[in-house]
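Final report, Chapter 2: Outcomes

The project's central promise was a pipeline that accepts a single protein chain and returns its three-dimensional structure in a standardized token representation, suitable for archiving and comparison. That pipeline is now operational. To close this chapter, we reproduce one record exactly as it appears in the project archive, with the input sequence first and the structure output second.
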Amino acid sequence: MPELRENVVPLQAEPRFRVISPEGLPLRERSDEQLMLAHGRGDEASFAELVRRHQKGVLNYMFRMVHNRHVAEELAQEVFVALVKNGVRYQPTAKFTTYMYTIASNIVSKEWSRQKRRPKLFSLGTWFGREDEEEYDALEHTSDESADIVEAFQRGEISEAVNTALNHLPEHQREAFVLRRFQDLSYEEIAEVLDVPVGTVKSRVVRAERGLRPHLERFRDYV
């Protein structure tokens, strides 16, 4: 007698892939935007991950804008305080870095305004300038220039030279240059941050590069 198979229900194959919500991903695999949205819902761990990712970049940006480590640290902290306050209202209408550096740029602009209103104080550095110049001249006239450049890299001298040279630029050129060359924002993103046309951003970066060259002549092959 043949077997009856009418009531046999075939087993369904297990799905090969599972859809994982952003909240199910490890923190380090989530996008900045996902982390910021989670922070807005009260997830402190997500905000801690944002700080881990961006605190160094924001601090470096601030230092290159104000050339004072203590002030840069305070301004960087202001950026993250603003992110905390804005968490509930945040909407990912642009890249998170664009949003974050827009906040940072506004904070820098306020600091520049405060600096211009402060009285200029006498600097003791003028008493020690000659000694520093002699040391620089000695470095510049060494017989083995390539070896000297390697040593300069190791001492962080080139980085310091770049940071010092940035102070010779107009503020608007300095900011556009730093956001492009150091923070790696696109021209379009910088235009959003600074609220200017893309063409203006490109022009400022080019002018900044031209303005920096005389101050970095010694390192022209390495910068």
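Archive annotation: Residues 17-21, 120-147 have pLDDT under 50 and may be disordered.
This record, like all others produced under the grant, will remain available to the consortium after the project formally closes.
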